[in-house]
Amino acid sequence: MKKIKGALALLAALSLAACGSGSPSSGPAESSTGAATGSGAATALEQIEVGVIPIVDVAPIYLGVKEGLFEKEGLDVKLTLAQGGAAIVPAITSKQMDFGFSNVTSMIVARSKNLPLKMVAPGGSSTGDTKADFAAVMTKPDSGIKDIKDLVGKKVAVNTLNNISDSTISEAVKLAGGDYTKVQFVEMGFPDMAAQLAAGNVDAMAAVEPFVTISEADGNVPVFSNYAEPVDDLTVAVYFTSDEYIEENPETAAKFARAMIASQKFADENPDKAKAVLPDYTSLEPDVIEKLTMPRFYTEVNEASIEKIAEISLDRGLIEQVPDLVALLPAK
Known about the structure:
Elements: H1 2-8, H2 40-43, E1 46-52, H3 59-66, H4 69-72, E2 75-81, H5 85-93, E3 99-103, H6 104-112, E4 117-122, E5 135-139, E6 155-158, H7 164-175, E7 184-187, H8 190-198, E8 204-208, H9 211-217, E9 221-224, E10 237-242, H10 243-248, H11 250-269, H12 271-276, H13 286-291, H14 303-315, H15 325-328
Parallel strand pairs: 1-2, 1-3, 6-7, 6-8
Antiparallel strand pairs: 3-10, 4-10, 5-8, 5-9
Helix pairs in contact: 3-11, 6-14
Main location: periplasm
InterPro entries: Solute-binding_3/MltF_N (IPR001638), SsuA/THI5 (IPR015168)
Pfam families: NMT1 (PF09084)
Protein backbone atom coordinates (compact mmCIF):
# COMPACT_ATOMS: atom_id res chain seq x y z
CA MET A 1 0.00 0.00 0.00
CA LYS A 2 2.94 2.33 0.65
CA LYS A 3 4.01 1.99 -2.95
CA ILE A 4 0.55 2.71 -4.25
CA LYS A 5 0.18 5.70 -1.96
CA GLY A 6 3.49 7.10 -3.14
CA ALA A 7 2.49 6.79 -6.77
CA LEU A 8 -0.93 8.33 -6.26
CA ALA A 9 0.69 11.55 -5.15
CA LEU A 10 2.14 11.76 -8.63
CA LEU A 11 -0.94 10.95 -10.57
CA ALA A 12 -2.98 14.00 -11.24
CA ALA A 13 -0.36 14.89 -13.76
CA LEU A 14 0.46 11.46 -14.93
CA SER A 15 -1.83 11.72 -17.90
CA LEU A 16 1.54 11.33 -19.23
CA ALA A 17 2.31 13.99 -21.22
CA ALA A 18 -0.75 13.05 -23.16
CA CYS A 19 -3.12 15.96 -23.59
CA GLY A 20 -4.39 15.54 -20.06
CA SER A 21 -6.65 18.04 -18.39
CA GLY A 22 -5.64 20.38 -15.64
CA SER A 23 -4.01 23.69 -14.92
CA PRO A 24 -0.56 24.89 -13.92
CA SER A 25 0.18 24.07 -10.33
CA SER A 26 0.41 26.80 -7.75
CA GLY A 27 2.77 24.63 -5.75
CA PRO A 28 6.46 25.29 -5.17
CA ALA A 29 8.72 25.54 -8.19
CA GLU A 30 12.40 24.83 -8.61
CA SER A 31 14.93 27.46 -9.65
CA SER A 32 18.33 26.94 -11.23
CA THR A 33 19.84 29.45 -8.85
CA GLY A 34 17.77 28.60 -5.80
CA ALA A 35 17.22 30.65 -2.66
CA ALA A 36 20.78 30.03 -1.53
CA THR A 37 22.22 32.32 -4.22
CA GLY A 38 20.62 35.20 -2.47
CA SER A 39 22.37 38.18 -4.02
CA GLY A 40 23.28 39.69 -7.36
CA ALA A 41 24.13 36.34 -9.00
CA ALA A 42 20.47 35.56 -9.56
CA THR A 43 19.78 38.92 -11.22
CA ALA A 44 22.56 38.27 -13.75
CA LEU A 45 20.71 35.23 -15.06
CA GLU A 46 17.81 35.32 -17.50
CA GLN A 47 14.66 33.91 -15.93
CA ILE A 48 12.55 31.43 -17.87
CA GLU A 49 9.54 29.35 -16.86
CA VAL A 50 9.07 25.75 -18.01
CA GLY A 51 5.85 23.78 -17.64
CA VAL A 52 6.50 20.16 -16.66
CA ILE A 53 4.61 17.12 -15.43
CA PRO A 54 5.80 15.26 -12.28
CA ILE A 55 6.73 11.99 -13.97
CA VAL A 56 9.98 10.09 -14.45
CA ASP A 57 10.37 11.49 -17.98
CA VAL A 58 11.31 14.97 -16.74
CA ALA A 59 14.12 13.85 -14.42
CA PRO A 60 16.79 15.29 -16.76
CA ILE A 61 15.57 18.88 -16.46
CA TYR A 62 15.51 18.67 -12.65
CA LEU A 63 18.94 17.05 -12.73
CA GLY A 64 20.23 19.69 -15.14
CA VAL A 65 19.04 22.46 -12.86
CA LYS A 66 20.65 20.73 -9.88
CA GLU A 67 23.95 20.25 -11.74
CA GLY A 68 24.09 23.87 -12.89
CA LEU A 69 23.77 23.09 -16.61
CA PHE A 70 21.15 25.80 -17.16
CA GLU A 71 23.01 28.31 -15.02
CA LYS A 72 26.04 27.67 -17.21
CA GLU A 73 23.96 28.94 -20.13
CA GLY A 74 22.92 31.99 -18.14
CA LEU A 75 19.41 30.74 -17.39
CA ASP A 76 17.48 30.79 -14.13
CA VAL A 77 14.82 28.11 -14.56
CA LYS A 78 11.46 28.11 -12.81
CA LEU A 79 9.82 24.70 -13.14
CA THR A 80 6.04 24.86 -12.84
CA LEU A 81 4.05 21.69 -12.32
CA ALA A 82 0.99 21.20 -14.50
CA GLN A 83 -1.46 18.33 -14.79
CA GLY A 84 -0.88 17.72 -18.47
CA GLY A 85 -0.35 19.06 -21.95
CA ALA A 86 -3.85 20.55 -22.08
CA ALA A 87 -2.69 23.02 -19.42
CA ILE A 88 0.82 23.57 -20.76
CA VAL A 89 -0.03 24.23 -24.42
CA PRO A 90 -2.27 27.26 -23.77
CA ALA A 91 0.22 28.54 -21.20
CA ILE A 92 2.84 28.58 -23.97
CA THR A 93 0.63 30.12 -26.64
CA SER A 94 -0.59 32.81 -24.23
CA LYS A 95 3.00 33.56 -23.11
CA GLN A 96 2.35 32.56 -19.49
CA MET A 97 5.23 30.10 -19.80
CA ASP A 98 8.29 30.06 -22.04
CA PHE A 99 8.76 26.33 -22.63
CA GLY A 100 6.75 23.18 -21.95
CA PHE A 101 6.79 19.39 -21.97
CA SER A 102 4.40 17.13 -23.88
CA ASN A 103 4.20 13.83 -25.76
CA VAL A 104 4.79 13.80 -29.48
CA THR A 105 1.25 12.78 -30.49
CA SER A 106 -0.13 15.83 -28.73
CA MET A 107 2.44 17.98 -30.55
CA ILE A 108 1.43 16.55 -33.94
CA VAL A 109 -2.26 17.03 -33.21
CA ALA A 110 -1.68 20.61 -32.03
CA ARG A 111 0.36 21.54 -35.10
CA SER A 112 -2.28 19.98 -37.37
CA LYS A 113 -4.77 22.41 -35.79
CA ASN A 114 -2.51 25.31 -36.78
CA LEU A 115 -1.18 25.91 -33.29
CA PRO A 116 2.29 27.42 -33.94
CA LEU A 117 4.27 25.11 -31.67
CA LYS A 118 7.79 23.85 -32.23
CA MET A 119 9.90 21.17 -30.57
CA VAL A 120 13.19 22.49 -29.21
CA ALA A 121 14.69 19.46 -27.42
CA PRO A 122 13.95 15.77 -26.83
CA GLY A 123 12.38 14.41 -23.66
CA GLY A 124 12.05 10.72 -22.76
CA SER A 125 12.44 7.96 -25.34
CA SER A 126 11.60 4.28 -25.37
CA THR A 127 14.36 1.88 -24.37
CA GLY A 128 13.55 -0.03 -27.55
CA ASP A 129 13.16 -3.24 -25.53
CA THR A 130 9.59 -4.57 -25.75
CA LYS A 131 10.16 -6.56 -22.56
CA ALA A 132 11.91 -3.89 -20.52
CA ASP A 133 10.57 -0.41 -21.16
CA PHE A 134 9.14 2.36 -19.04
CA ALA A 135 5.72 1.74 -20.59
CA ALA A 136 3.92 -1.59 -20.81
CA VAL A 137 0.50 -3.08 -21.45
CA MET A 138 -0.22 -5.01 -18.24
CA THR A 139 -2.73 -7.78 -17.60
CA LYS A 140 -3.61 -10.39 -15.01
CA PRO A 141 -1.67 -13.66 -15.31
CA ASP A 142 -4.89 -15.64 -15.86
CA SER A 143 -6.40 -13.22 -18.41
CA GLY A 144 -5.59 -15.38 -21.41
CA ILE A 145 -3.74 -12.46 -23.01
CA LYS A 146 -0.35 -13.83 -23.94
CA ASP A 147 0.61 -11.69 -26.90
CA ILE A 148 -0.38 -8.56 -28.79
CA LYS A 149 -2.98 -10.21 -31.01
CA ASP A 150 -4.85 -11.45 -27.93
CA LEU A 151 -5.92 -7.86 -27.24
CA VAL A 152 -8.51 -8.12 -30.03
CA GLY A 153 -11.98 -8.06 -28.48
CA LYS A 154 -10.60 -6.92 -25.11
CA LYS A 155 -11.05 -3.75 -23.04
CA VAL A 156 -7.83 -1.84 -22.54
CA ALA A 157 -7.48 1.09 -20.13
CA VAL A 158 -5.61 4.17 -21.40
CA ASN A 159 -5.12 7.48 -19.63
CA THR A 160 -6.31 9.55 -22.60
CA LEU A 161 -8.33 8.48 -25.62
CA ASN A 162 -7.15 9.36 -29.12
CA ASN A 163 -3.56 9.90 -28.13
CA ILE A 164 -0.23 8.14 -27.99
CA SER A 165 -1.24 5.04 -25.99
CA ASP A 166 -4.29 3.84 -27.89
CA SER A 167 -2.83 4.73 -31.29
CA THR A 168 0.42 2.81 -30.71
CA ILE A 169 -1.42 -0.17 -29.21
CA SER A 170 -3.82 -0.34 -32.13
CA GLU A 171 -0.91 -0.15 -34.58
CA ALA A 172 0.87 -3.00 -32.80
CA VAL A 173 -2.30 -5.10 -32.99
CA LYS A 174 -2.61 -4.28 -36.70
CA LEU A 175 0.98 -5.32 -37.40
CA ALA A 176 0.42 -8.54 -35.43
CA GLY A 177 -2.38 -9.43 -37.83
CA GLY A 178 -5.29 -8.56 -35.53
CA ASP A 179 -8.32 -6.37 -36.12
CA TYR A 180 -7.42 -3.29 -34.11
CA THR A 181 -10.92 -1.85 -34.52
CA LYS A 182 -12.14 -4.56 -32.16
CA VAL A 183 -9.93 -3.40 -29.29
CA GLN A 184 -12.08 -1.34 -26.93
CA PHE A 185 -10.17 1.46 -25.25
CA VAL A 186 -11.47 2.84 -21.96
CA GLU A 187 -10.24 6.17 -20.59
CA MET A 188 -9.28 6.42 -16.93
CA GLY A 189 -6.53 7.84 -14.74
CA PHE A 190 -3.40 5.79 -14.17
CA PRO A 191 -4.08 5.20 -10.44
CA ASP A 192 -7.56 3.86 -11.21
CA MET A 193 -6.39 1.26 -13.68
CA ALA A 194 -5.12 -1.39 -11.28
CA ALA A 195 -8.39 -1.53 -9.34
CA GLN A 196 -10.42 -1.73 -12.55
CA LEU A 197 -8.16 -4.49 -13.84
CA ALA A 198 -8.50 -6.42 -10.57
CA ALA A 199 -12.29 -6.02 -10.69
CA GLY A 200 -12.44 -7.34 -14.23
CA ASN A 201 -13.83 -4.11 -15.66
CA VAL A 202 -10.93 -3.98 -18.11
CA ASP A 203 -8.79 -6.81 -19.45
CA ALA A 204 -5.52 -4.90 -19.70
CA MET A 205 -4.07 -1.49 -18.94
CA ALA A 206 -1.55 0.73 -20.71
CA ALA A 207 0.76 1.72 -17.86
CA VAL A 208 3.86 3.87 -17.56
CA GLU A 209 6.35 4.02 -14.72
CA PRO A 210 5.95 3.97 -11.79
CA PHE A 211 2.72 2.06 -12.44
CA VAL A 212 4.48 -0.68 -14.41
CA THR A 213 6.64 -1.51 -11.39
CA ILE A 214 3.72 -1.19 -8.96
CA SER A 215 1.49 -3.38 -11.16
CA GLU A 216 4.14 -6.09 -11.35
CA ALA A 217 4.47 -6.01 -7.57
CA ASP A 218 0.72 -6.67 -7.42
CA GLY A 219 1.19 -9.82 -9.50
CA ASN A 220 0.25 -8.52 -12.94
CA VAL A 221 2.32 -9.35 -16.02
CA PRO A 222 3.44 -7.32 -19.05
CA VAL A 223 2.26 -8.22 -22.54
CA PHE A 224 4.50 -5.83 -24.46
CA SER A 225 5.60 -2.19 -24.53
CA ASN A 226 3.52 -0.08 -26.87
CA TYR A 227 6.30 2.53 -26.90
CA ALA A 228 8.97 0.03 -27.95
CA GLU A 229 6.65 -1.56 -30.51
CA PRO A 230 5.49 -0.78 -33.20
CA VAL A 231 7.74 2.30 -33.61
CA ASP A 232 11.51 1.86 -33.57
CA ASP A 233 13.44 4.09 -31.16
CA LEU A 234 10.40 6.19 -30.37
CA THR A 235 10.89 9.70 -29.06
CA VAL A 236 7.93 9.72 -26.69
CA ALA A 237 8.01 13.29 -25.42
CA VAL A 238 9.69 16.63 -26.12
CA TYR A 239 10.21 20.14 -24.82
CA PHE A 240 8.59 22.81 -26.96
CA THR A 241 7.74 26.47 -27.30
CA SER A 242 5.93 28.70 -29.79
CA ASP A 243 7.18 29.95 -33.13
CA GLU A 244 6.63 33.48 -31.87
CA TYR A 245 8.80 32.93 -28.79
CA ILE A 246 11.66 31.64 -30.93
CA GLU A 247 11.33 34.61 -33.31
CA GLU A 248 11.38 37.07 -30.42
CA ASN A 249 13.95 35.24 -28.26
CA PRO A 250 16.24 33.24 -30.58
CA GLU A 251 19.25 33.33 -28.25
CA THR A 252 17.24 32.25 -25.21
CA ALA A 253 15.66 29.40 -27.16
CA ALA A 254 19.12 28.28 -28.30
CA LYS A 255 20.46 28.45 -24.73
CA PHE A 256 17.54 26.40 -23.41
CA ALA A 257 17.98 23.79 -26.14
CA ARG A 258 21.71 23.47 -25.39
CA ALA A 259 21.14 23.16 -21.64
CA MET A 260 18.31 20.68 -22.12
CA ILE A 261 20.36 18.50 -24.45
CA ALA A 262 23.28 18.60 -22.00
CA SER A 263 20.86 17.57 -19.23
CA GLN A 264 19.54 14.70 -21.32
CA LYS A 265 23.07 13.47 -21.97
CA PHE A 266 24.03 13.74 -18.32
CA ALA A 267 20.91 11.87 -17.17
CA ASP A 268 21.38 9.10 -19.73
CA GLU A 269 25.02 8.64 -18.72
CA ASN A 270 24.16 8.80 -15.00
CA PRO A 271 20.93 6.81 -14.51
CA ASP A 272 21.46 6.50 -10.77
CA LYS A 273 21.63 10.29 -10.44
CA ALA A 274 18.52 10.59 -12.61
CA LYS A 275 16.68 8.27 -10.21
CA ALA A 276 18.12 10.08 -7.20
CA VAL A 277 16.48 13.34 -8.29
CA LEU A 278 12.98 11.82 -8.41
CA PRO A 279 12.23 12.46 -4.70
CA ASP A 280 12.84 16.17 -5.37
CA TYR A 281 9.53 16.43 -7.24
CA THR A 282 7.61 13.19 -6.60
CA SER A 283 6.49 11.20 -3.56
CA LEU A 284 7.66 7.83 -4.82
CA GLU A 285 8.91 5.33 -2.26
CA PRO A 286 12.62 4.37 -2.45
CA ASP A 287 11.88 0.69 -3.18
CA VAL A 288 9.75 1.67 -6.19
CA ILE A 289 12.40 4.07 -7.49
CA GLU A 290 15.05 1.36 -7.20
CA LYS A 291 13.08 -1.02 -9.44
CA LEU A 292 11.91 1.52 -12.01
CA THR A 293 12.78 1.20 -15.66
CA MET A 294 13.74 4.70 -16.74
CA PRO A 295 13.28 6.08 -20.26
CA ARG A 296 16.31 6.65 -22.44
CA PHE A 297 17.33 10.28 -22.57
CA TYR A 298 18.76 10.92 -26.01
CA THR A 299 20.16 14.19 -27.28
CA GLU A 300 18.21 14.23 -30.54
CA VAL A 301 14.60 13.76 -31.53
CA ASN A 302 14.26 10.66 -33.71
CA GLU A 303 12.64 12.20 -36.78
CA ALA A 304 11.75 8.82 -38.29
CA SER A 305 9.74 7.96 -35.19
CA ILE A 306 7.87 11.28 -35.37
CA GLU A 307 7.02 10.61 -39.02
CA LYS A 308 5.69 7.18 -38.06
CA ILE A 309 3.57 8.60 -35.23
CA ALA A 310 2.17 11.16 -37.68
CA GLU A 311 1.26 8.36 -40.10
CA ILE A 312 -0.48 6.40 -37.35
CA SER A 313 -2.28 9.54 -36.16
CA LEU A 314 -3.55 10.17 -39.67
CA ASP A 315 -4.67 6.57 -40.15
CA ARG A 316 -6.54 6.59 -36.82
CA GLY A 317 -8.28 9.86 -37.57
CA LEU A 318 -6.51 11.88 -34.87
CA ILE A 319 -5.54 14.39 -37.55
CA GLU A 320 -7.03 15.27 -40.93
CA GLN A 321 -3.65 15.72 -42.55
CA VAL A 322 -0.02 15.40 -41.54
CA PRO A 323 1.23 18.85 -40.51
CA ASP A 324 4.47 20.39 -41.70
CA LEU A 325 6.91 18.28 -39.70
CA VAL A 326 9.86 20.47 -40.63
CA ALA A 327 8.09 23.35 -38.90
CA LEU A 328 7.35 21.14 -35.89
CA LEU A 329 10.70 19.39 -35.43
CA PRO A 330 13.69 21.09 -33.75
CA ALA A 331 15.72 23.38 -35.98
CA LYS A 332 18.88 21.81 -37.34
